[in-house]
Amino acid sequence: MAARAGTERHDYRWATQLIEPNTLLSRISVLKPKGRRTLLAIAGPPGAGKSTLAETLVSALGETAALVPMDGFHIDNRILERRGLLTRKGAPETFDSSGFLAMVRRLAEDDEVYIPTFDRTKDIAVAGADVVGPEQSIAVVEGNYLLLGIAPWRGLGDLWDFSVFLDVPMEVLRQRLVQRWLDQGLDSGSAVRRAEVNDLPNARLVRNWSAAADSVFRTV
């Protein structure tokens, strides 16, 4: 997906606002949300470790926090196949981006929000499979495109109370993404092709065209 006019390219290799997990927890505890909940964005390329960091934060924050993955907004494989996009699954255009944006707005305003999840074993999104309730004052949202400066994704930017970008070198991402496909049973050649044809272009898009985060979590 090509970047459009009006987007701003950011090079996270030169980012200076680094943050550690304990410091991040301290920052979250003093945030004053714009809406009903504190909305924390954990963004970064595929394979960067967003899910791990988000799960760690939610576990540390306890019952007041809810985990909200973007993966529940994958468009169904049957629709992607009709549109010739199945081999690009995971790219921005293969998500229900408008639906995701509407859900994030609801998280900021509504007491209770039902959210979809993604069943990786069946490779399918499951509607209404989880709920963020009134007792959860923090939503930790994780996904590749939370800071992407391309419409409609860029509409998310003003909704976040705090954002973190996971900065991982491309060579490390490549190793992780190939291993991810190997772990799913692909042979070596197929795993490399899947990573290089789809995953790594998406990773470059995220690294090059995401808006600057409030802080950067750098791993090697």
Question: If you had to describe this structure to a student in words, what would you say it looks like?
Answer:
With 220 residues, the chain is α/β, with parallel strands linked by helices. The chain has helices spanning 21-29, 50-61, 77-82, 97-109, 170-183, 188-209, and strands at 38-43, 65-69, 113-119, 124-132, 138-143, 162-167, 215-218. The strands form two sheets. Strands 2-5-1-6-7 form a five-stranded parallel sheet. The chain has a two-stranded antiparallel ribbon with strand order 3-4. Helix 5 (170-183) crosses helix 6.
Summed up, what is this model?
The chain has 220 residues and is an alpha/beta fold. It has six helices and seven strands, in the order αβαβααββββααβ.
Fold blueprint:
Layout: H1 21-29, E1 38-43, H2 50-61, E2 65-69, H3 77-82, H4 97-109, E3 113-119, E4 124-132, E5 138-143, E6 162-167, H5 170-183, H6 188-209, E7 215-218
Parallel strand pairs: 1-5, 1-6, 2-5, 6-7
Antiparallel strand pairs: 3-4
